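Honest question from a wet-lab person: if I give you the sequences of every part of a complex, can you actually get the arrangement of the whole thing, not just the pieces? Trying it with mine:
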Amino acid sequence: MGKVLEKKRLNEFLSKVSKGGDLIAPVKRDTLRFEIVKDFNDICLEGRPLFPVKKFFSPAKEDLFNLNLTNKNKPFDEEKIKLKPRVIFGGRLCDFNGLLKLDKLFLSEEYQDDYYKLARENTLLLGINCDPAPSEYCFCESMDLEKYYDLFFHDMGDKYYIEAGSEKGKTLIIDLEDYDFTIPSIKCEKKLYTKDISKYYDDSAWDKENDKCLSCGKCTAHCTTCLCFDMIDELEADVKHGKRFKEWDSCQFLNFTEVAGGAIFRKDRINRFKHRIYHKLQYFREKFDMDMCTGCGRCIESCPRLIDFTEVINNFKD
Amino acid sequence: MNKKLRIGVKSITGCAGCQLSLYFIEDVLLELLDKIDLVAAPMIKSKNEEEYDVLFIEGSVSSQDDLDNLLKFRKQAKFLIALGACASHGCMQSMKHLMNEKEVEKDVYNKFPSDKRLKPITSVPIHKHVKVDFYIPGCPPNNEEIAQVFKWLVQGKRLKVYDKAVCHECSLKENYCLLDQGIECLGPLMNGGCKALCPDYNHPCTGCRGMLDDANLKSGKEMLKDKGFDPDMMIKRMTKYNALQFKEFEKPPEESK
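Yes, you can. This is the full assembly:
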């Protein structure tokens, strides 16, 4: 059982939960983006932003440490980030499931990313249900998403039904009125018929979509879970100062797999295309027992040729 | 490093904007003066020397004079860098590759038939005539990038040109895709490194940094058709910087060896 909140009290509620921190929500300017909200009236819950929320946890470009060889005692100075507490409101189930997958990678005991961890610990996730699906490219119904959020809102006309998904979430809505309701599951027109693609690496269905690929990297930049990055060292002219930073990269580029000596492992476009999908549906599952894809359809929607990997998979020959 | 690097800049046919961009990194140049000697810089020095460790060349080969000079420069330089769109890809001078060259020449040069210096040859980027060790593309090249190359040179690091599509940098900036707004942007086919400067200001990319090494031209044309544009428009837009590259993508030159 959850709680209920009248719509006219939404802004009041949001300002209460985000007090002393930042509220992040979809804001419509030329297009819809997740932004730090300055005016509550800017929040737009119609449609979903094409750009996912991953940037708040691992920005497109992030400094890691500074180098200063003139300081003998401390040549390396790690970049300390201070983060205000943040609340993301209006994320969809796919957005937050994307974080669930990234948590597996960046919060693992083996390889923990301190920057990512800090950002995750300081962020509350307030989701909203998709009813109807916000884009014709959505296929999350096929992707077994989990209830991964602190609070989840469902639009009921003049009020929101709210369900808590964490202890933190429960305390936020403790004062609200109880309400008995079951949130309907998300319905998508697009379906992915199978997720077991191991047998189909050489299927001819790959070719048709691959021929359209421009290798522009928009699919990976817009993906909720793609966070591959390049590590870059930059040295000043004096050869004493410098920094190391990371920047998002993409497996769809020719030179992504270039190694010392100049060898490139995935020279052919089709191998890059397949790698992206196999990573999402097979390699990640082998390690973490879940898919890396959330079915948000952003890779399709952002693609200049609308390349649709579900079409490939749904057209495999048995 | 004991010996200072002897660095020079030389021009053949172009607007000289690339050379100017190079001087815009004056603060970095000042910092580097104990490591480099700017031995030839015709725009800011009256006395210029020859023989270079590193030579930047701007402009494309568009006349016999250009060619003679370029061959001479190559002999004088240990390491040769093509600076800017003309030297790297041919730029506007090479638009003739998609036209009837004789007709263009007749229209332009017949006014001064007596001046032999104006006798053009087929305009090409410099790698068509000499070995080029590194490229800094762009029209004009980004001065931050030039500064980076100078730093790499004095540090002895391997130089690396940005080789990701314009769309990548544009997406990282969360720009609303111009193609979805009815503007015929060529970003998906073009080399970035410009931080998507033009699309960032709602101006379509026309590819001043050249086409991607593995640009999918066929799909690019389909894309423009799907979005309701005229694919021939793409050809016209591309000829601004990349006529020769475009032609070679359409019909790869036969291996000479």
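Two things worth pointing out. The first helix of chain B runs from residue 17 to 23. Residues 5-155 of chain B form a domain with the Rossmann fold fold (CATH 3.40.50.700).
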